[in-house]
Specification:
The complex is a heterodimer of chains A (707) and B (333).
Chain A (H helix, E strand, L loop, with lengths): L2 H15 L10 E2 L5 E2 L31 H4 L3 E2 L2 E2 L4 H13 L4 E5 L2 H4 L23 H7 L9 E5 L4 H15 L8 E3 L4 H7 L6 H18 L3 E2 L1 E4 L1 H5 L4 H21 L4 H4 L3 E7 L3 H20 L13 E5 L11 H16 L3 E3 L12 H16 L14 H24 L2 H7 L1 H19 L27 H15 L2 H16 L4 H10 L4 H12 L12 H5 L4 H17 L4 E6 L7 H13 L2 E4 L6 H10 L4 E6 L4 H14 L6 E6 L6 H6 L4 E3 L5 H11 L3
Parallel strand pairs in A: 3-12, 4-5, 5-6, 6-7, 7-8, 9-10, 10-11, 11-12, 13-14, 13-15, 15-16, 16-17
Antiparallel strand pairs in A: 1-2
Chain B lengths: L5 H9 L3 H12 L3 H14 L7 E6 L6 H14 L4 E7 L8 E3 L6 H5 L3 E7 L4 H17 L4 E6 L4 H7 L4 E7 L11 H6 L2 E5 L6 H16 L12 E3 L9 H17 L1 H28 L1 H16 L4 H10 L3 H7 L1
Parallel strand pairs in B: 1-5, 1-6, 2-4, 2-5, 6-7, 7-8
Helix pairs in contact in B: 1-3, 2-3, 2-6, 6-7, 12-13
């Protein structure tokens, strides 16, 4: 039987099984806009651009290495940072003993944003989302008894890259380790910070210069160190689909390459040290294909610079399973989600992987949940036998075809970005951010409508809440950090520090290498905050422009009954009280995750609320003042970085001081259920954890203001 | 708080109590009859304390950088001791009736400055309505001691014309485009402008901005200006450079001094007051008209006939107006 007739026969059989419904009714369109058929055949391979390609060779679709996991499995690299350097150090050493091969440092938000722990704007954030590092003294504790000449260290740092990288290098120097022995990665991907996470310090232009300076220094002194990890992860977490994630990440990468080239570097000197970081979500085959497509496109993009070293065209990547797909409801389900995402990353051919802990929708991981997360990877690696074959899905009709579809879609966006004048210009125009937020709002609407299933959230709900243990961050961290900082400032030669800091400012004004200047200051015991300030004098601090989409949520919901009933409630409220319900959404402290707030804003406006947005990084007092001036009915605090126990009570106190206790306060985001009582006791009227449909939260918001 | 006692609000406003100023503006914006009555009382009593400010209207299409401009200009003024109030009008969705009020995200420092008061308000469904409310809110801010009032409106269209009738100086913000300078700008808006400012004249943009400045200067040349003694200038400015908006303010001051010297300042304010009265009369008449029971009853029927082409629009209007006379007002309401 020829191939064609067998397809015809299949069609007939399928239509018979469908009892008269057309075969097309089985087609699905993904959020990326890719049409998925129920069956793929050899015919679908005909137009693939990378048929018969081989692993380890351009265009690297089947993997950057020739032997892939058959030779050596991916690196299990769990990102973690506990509040203090000491705790984190204990944790790393325990994990290294338990089979982890590299370590990955998470820093707290004040460190990211260039503030020392004694800065007045950061009191609620110290040690919350990771480890607090104020100086090289903290760095030395962090890496105590960890041999930095052997251990690969990954650091998630973008804003305060210079003081942190300098701290790491000086800590190594004081261990007796030479620069060229250091290996690891610093994220150093500032462009995506303007898109999603907002942990930048300076405006884009000087930030790009910092990156060039780091690349220039490291390519000479630290050849084994990856100077940048171009990250799509945060875009995915902000709601980007796989096509957007790939397009914007590659476009960021291209921008860094251009910056390095224009600072006079040779492509083959730095390009082989570029690494990537992708987020892996719940669409199993999509993200396998995404990694394959990304490798293909990167090789294609890099060809324009005519590198001689094939490694310059090779996309190597770290991956992390999605935090966004984790639910607070029925949280043990998250282990299964993470396992699927882990498989997806592995079949896509990642070089290293972080698997999330099942409790991360609720709070910071405990020792148990961290062990389960790590073991997820170990079991896949050592029990499942998937490592034996290179790119086991290569040649799959569906996966190859899907890879091609992603390539095509991403190329369209890359062209669009090119027309805007490159990614830096595109970011200025607000295009990527708006695109991500739009996709994100649509997704939320589909979840709220039950079109996209999330078990335990909109389907198969459990009656009783499953309680899990959550790790607490002690409030004493701040005092400890400040004490150590003060001690260091007492012991050091202040004239020398002042001089070194002036040198940094000078280098910022002219064109000396900033990393070299920061190393000198770090050796003299300047604090991370002081080093950041020395540059801020010249560069200024970046203030984001917030744009907000509107109408998207309701459009995706098809103006459903739920939306209509909410519109009626807001209208009734206006008729009763003389104005629409007015809510102020605030981000306090250094937590820059604004995806949630944006979705709530656009959805609530679609329901007929008047929605006020605060600037990012507010103090509780500033937030209270806006609430008072705008005279809102209620303030919605969004908290994803564990600052709620300090910031929310301060906000309520500040409102009271302004004689505005009638303005209600509610909290949304990642709040451990154990903290609900605490928050309610200080006066919070309602709390929305992850997974609460926006339509529900809107109704409960209206209840809270007596609508 | 004694919610409905006008005296309470008046005292609070005069003492510059932030909470009470805000609550007073809420009352002014309220659609409830009982709130309107209270706010009417308040506005009447604070009127003698108002008027001692420079009123600056600022408009421009979305993306032109209005909020950031106001942040920069506002800080310049607030840091030199001025008390600055910003009233920003944000567009409202026709479908849902809701609004997103994000101005303060771009006025981070100004919003936290002790010398300022910033109030964003939803435009609501009727543009004329918001203008009246903004005007009253402006009086409240003046009575509370703010000496500079910045009124920001979004977009292009009717709201600009309304705002220009309540301010002393109307500024149109523009950005330099690529050769298509005059497109998308309504001639009417240029006619009511007291100055045009080309924003984002910084870094790589300076040349483009200067070129745009020349083109607009030419264009203004052909339009008649609103005052015989003032030719609206075109200036360039930047919201990201320190004091990048200073020359705009200098222009405002120059205009202010000149207008006071020629007497046009007082004249304009008096004219505006009369115009405002007529606005209120228009609104009131329309409201009363719509509330007349016979009109209410006839509107659907007559509208349908107009749609079907059974009667002409002018005949229909004639007919509806004929139901509306002094007697009907009394009976109807």
């Amino acid at each position: 039987m020829s191939d064609k007739t067998s397809i015809e026969t299949w069609k007939e059989l399928a239509e018979k099984q469908l009892r008269g419904k057309p075969l097309d009714s089985l087609n699905k369109t993904t959020p990326e806009g890719i049409e998925i058929k129920p069956l793929y055949t050899a015919k679908d391979l005909e137009n693939i651009e990378f048929n018969n390609s081989m692993p380890g060779q351009e265009p690297f679709v089947r993997g950057p290495m020739a032997t892939m996991y058959a030779g050596r499995p991916w690196t299990i690299r769990q990102y973690a940072g506990f509040s203090t350097a000491k705790e984190s150090n204990d944790f790393y050493r325990k994990n290294l003993a338990a089979g982890q091969m590299g370590l990955s440092v998470a820093f707290d938000l004040p460190t990211h944003r260039g503030y020392d722990s004694d800065h007045p704007r950061v009191s609620g954030d110290i040690g919350k989302a990771g480890v607090a590092i104020d100086s090289v003294e903290d760095m030395k504790i962090l890496f105590n008894e960890i041999p930095l000449d052997k251990m690969s260290v990954s650091m998630t740092m973008n804003g305060a890259v210079l003081p942190i990288l300098a701290g790491y290098i000086v800590a190594a120097e004081e261990q007796g380790v030479k620069h060229d022995q250091l290996k690891g990665t610093i994220q150093n991907d500032i462009l995506k910070e303007y898109l999603t996470r907002n942990t930048y310090i300076y405006p884009p232009k000087p930030s790009m210069r910092i990156i060039s300076d780091i690349m220039a220094f490291c390519s000479k002194e630290m050849p084994g160190f990856n100077t940048i990890s171009i990250s799509g992860y945060h875009m995915m977490e902000a709601g980007a689909d796989s096509v957007l994630q790939t397009a914007f990440t590659l476009a960021d990468g291209l921008e860094y390459v251009k910056a390095a080239l224009s600072s006079g570097m040779d492509i083959d000197v730095f390009a082989p040290r570029l690494s990537f970081f992708f987020g892996i979500g719940m669409n199993f085959f999509m993200d396998i294909a995404m990694l394959r497509a990304a490798r293909f496109l990167w090789a294609e993009l890099m060809s324009q610079f005519n590198p001689k070293n094939p490694k310059s065209k090779m996309l190597r990547t770290h991956c992390q399973t999605s935090g966004w797909s984790l639910t607070q409801q029925d949280p043990y389900n998250n282990i299964i989600r993470t396992t699927l995402e882990c498989m997806s990353a592995v079949l896509g051919g990642t070089q290293s992987l972080h698997t999330n802990s099942f409790d991360e929708a609720v709070g910071l991981p405990t020792e148990t949940s961290a062990r389960v997360a790590r073991n997820t990877q170990i079991i896949v690696q050592e029990e499942s036998q998937v490592c034996n074959v290179v790119d086991p899905l290569g040649g799959s009709y569906y996966v190859e075809s899907l890879t091609q579809s992603i390539v095509d879609k991403v190329r369209e966006i890359l062209t669009e970005i090119d027309e805007l004048g490159g990614m830096a210009k595109a970011i200025e125009s607000g295009m990527p951010k708006m695109r991500i937020e739009e996709v994100s709002a649509r997704r939320q609407a589909r979840i709220d409508q039950g079109t996209d299933t999330i078990v335990g959230v909109n389907k198969y709900l459990v009656e009783d809440e499953v309680h899990i243990e959550v790790r607490e961050v002690s409030e004493e961290v701040r005092d400890e950090q400040i004490a150590r900082l003060e001690q260091m400032k007492k012991d050091r030669d202040n004239d020398k520090v002042k001089d070194a800091l002036n040198q940094i400012t000078k280098a910022a004004e002219a064109d000396g290498n900033l990393l070299e200047a920061c190393l000198a200051a770090t050796r003299a015991r300047a604090s991370a905050g002081e080093i950041s300030d020395a540059m801020e004098k010249v560069f200024g601090r970046y203030v984001a422009t917030t744009q907000c989409i509107s109408g998207v949520y309701a459009a995706e919901s098809g103006n459903s009954e739920l939306v209509e009933s909410l519109r009626k409630r807001t209208k009734d409220f206006k008729e009763k009280t003389g104005r629409r319900p007015r809510i102020l959404l605030v981000k306090m402290g250094q937590d820059g995750h604004d995806r949630g707030v944006k979705i709530i804003a656009t959805a609530y406006a679609d329901f007929g609320f008047d929605v006020d947005l605060s600037p990012m990084f507010q103090t509780p007092e500033e937030a209270a003042r806006i609430a008072v001036e705008n005279d809102v009915h209620i303030v919605g605090v969004s908290s994803l970085a564990a600052g709620h126990k300090t910031l929310v009570p301060s906000l309520i106190k500040a409102l009271k001081k302004e004689d505005a206790s009638d303005i209600k306060v509610l909290v949304g985001g990642v709040i451990p259920p154990g903290d609900y009582d605490f928050l309610k006791d200080v006066g919070v009227v309602d709390i929305f954890g992850p997974g609460v449909p926006v339509t529900d939260s809107a109704n409960r918001t209206l209840n809270a203001i007596g609508a | 708080m004694k919610e409905k006692d006008p005296e309470f609000f008046i005292q609070g406003v005069l003492k510059n109590n932030r909470r009470i100023i805000a609550k007073t503006i809420t009352l002014i914006e309220s659609s409830l009859a009982r709130d309107k009555k209270v706010s009417f009382e308040i506005v009447k009593k604070i009127l003698p304390y108002s008027g001692k400010s420079i009123r600056l209207g600022i408009t421009g299409i979305p993306g032109v950088g209005k909020s950031t401009f106001i942040e920069n200009l506002g800080l310049l003024l607030a840091n030199s001791g001025h008390k600055v109030a910003v009233l920003a009008v944000d567009p409202t969705s026709r479908k849902s009736g809701g609004s997103i009020l994000g101005d303060k995200t771009r006025m981070e420092k100004l919003a936290a400055h002790e010398n300022t008061f910033i109030r964003p308000s939803p435009a609501g469904k009727t543009l004329g309505g918001v203008a009246a409310k903004t005007r009253e809110a402006m009086l409240v801010c003046e009575a509370a001691g703010y000496d500079t009032i910045l009124v920001e409106t979004v977009g292009v269209g009717q709201s600009e014309t309304k705002v220009s009738t309540m301010v002393d100086f109307f500024l149109v913000l523009l950005i330099a485009g690529a050769g298509d300078e005059l497109q998308g700008i309504k001639k009417g808006i240029l006619e009511i402008a007291d100055a045009l400012a080309i924003n984002k004249a910084d870094n790589d943009n300076i040349d483009k901005a200067n070129k745009a400045k020349k083109i607009y200067e030419m264009a203004l040349h052909f339009l008649s200006s609103s005052s015989s003694s003032w030719n609206p200038p075109v200036v360039t400015c930047s919201s990201i450079l320190e004091n990048g908006t200073e020359n705009v303010w200098k222009t405002v001051i120059k205009h202010n001094k000149l207008m006071k010297r020629t007497g046009e300042f007082d004249h304009k304010r008096k004219e505006q007051a009369v115009e405002w009265m007529w606005n209120l009369v228009d609104d009131g008449l329309k409201k009363k008209f719509m509330e007349t029971s016979i009109v209410k009853k006839e509107i659907p029927k007559i509208s349908k006939q107009v749609k079907q082409g059974l009667i002409s629009p002018s005949a229909a209007a004639e007919e509806l107006l004929s139901y509306f006379n002094y007697k009907n007002i009394l009976i109807g309401t």
